Please model this.
Amino acid sequence: SGGSTLLTEAGQTDSYSIVLSQAPTADVTLNMSADAQSTVSSPNVTFTSLDWSTPQTITVTAVNDAVEEGTHNTLIIHSNASSADPNFSNLPVPAVTGSITDDDGKQLVLTQTGGSTVIAEAGATDTISLKLSTAPSANVSITLVAPNTIIPTPPYAKQYGYYTSDIANGNQQKDRIIMDYTEIILLYRSTFYGSLNTAYSNNIPAQPGATQLQNAHWAASKALVDKLDLWLAGGSLKAKFPDLIEPNVAPPGVLPPPNPRQVILDCIYQIDGGANSLGTVRYSPEVAYDPKAPVSTVFNNEIRDRCRWAAYLMSTVAPGLVAH
Model:
């Protein structure tokens, strides 16, 4: 409901609905279970050939614990559908991720009326409420600032020549995105070697280990994408999708839902494709970077490729993914 599942430990619940896409020839049942962060109103739902098109609503309630967790997620898992109808038998059902606002510790608790904030240019308004979770020792002032309007860059930028010259057709001037790659290439390189220096206490061996190299390339890829996110989307992509599944790190207790920030980062990191990409363990010792005469090796060319691909993806699709 409302396009998202937003809960608070203070008692605000939310719901989602399940419905079949066509009439089954036999009853269809699926079970659902929440993790330790929430509860669901029903452990299962069953559809028949008579009520298959009537949505069944599941209410999700956050567990009000005493642990300071900040904003955190909950995951509702569904079993594969059970039915004698072969069209629905063992059909996978996606999980639902909810965002929970904590009410423990010293924090600002924001509640959206009805679980979401929907407004219209024609005049329809909506409201939010703010409160403190504990009594302060002095007055607390909060300033509300309207966000900047982000206009998505068209996803057809390459098709219509944003990345190509129109000198030969001077009478058809095009708006073009002009990117100075030097800064982001330097950002990637400094982050990459900085990660290795930290891992090896400023004494990088002639051939660093595969894990250390993967971590360095991931850190650099993340710094690259997040910098472009700031430039091109005001940092909105990271703000909307803060949690990631990262290499060589145990996944979060609650897995983040599929999201564009994770996908773009995976694309940039695994430059040659696949989890065992050679690009994730490529290495050359650090040298001074001259943008007018860059070193042309597989390692250095891959860094430049990562920066070019990231700039293309983040300028053409990231603002639209955030705005919509």
